[in-house]
Structure formats: C-alpha cells, structure tokens
Design goal:
Blueprint: E1 7-12, H1 20-33, E2 40-47, E3 52-58, H2 62-72, E4 79-83
C-alpha cells in the first residue's frame, strides 16, 4: 500500500520482561494519537525472550513517529530505520 510517505521500522531494545499484552496496549495508545502527527503505525512485533519490540510505521519523518510514542506512552525507540516494502 503506497501512502507517499516514507516507511520506517523502529527498534525498542532493553525491554526486559516485556509482554505481548503490554505492547498491544501501547500500540492501541499509538493508534489513538497517530492522526495528530500524520503517522500510521501499521504493525508491531514482540520478542519477549530478547526484550525487543519492532514497529512498522508510515510517517513523514522519524521525529513524527517518535512524537506519537512519546505522547502515547513514553516508550521511545532506540533506533529507527527507513525501509522499503518488498
């Protein structure tokens, strides 16, 4: 689905004890806030064993995606990578 916006994969590391249920709640909070910043959080993945979360997001820039996370729940990504869907 082309949106005309860049696509980013963000990486949250060092989240020891993270549970999929908690990430689902945080994602719902992202969805509630994202429209304010012109962002679309598409999907997320959780690795409970390694304490990592990944989010796939359409955003005008990485800063806009970070603003959503900051306002929604305060859990900011450690890294953000621009990616191309294949």
């Amino acid at each position: 689905m082309a949106t005309g916006m860049p696509l980013y994969m963000d990486e949250h590391r060092h989240m020891k004890g993270v549970k999929a249920e908690a990430v689902a709640e945080a994602h719902a909070k992202d969805l509630a806030v994202q429209g304010k910043y012109g962002v679309n959080f598409r999907k997320y993945w959780v690795d409970e064993q390694k304490g990592m979360v990944f989010c796939l997001v359409d955003a005008p820039n990485p800063e806009a995606a970070a603003k959503v996370h900051r306002e929604a729940h305060g859990l900011l990504a450690d890294e953000v990578h621009e990616v191309k869907e294949g």
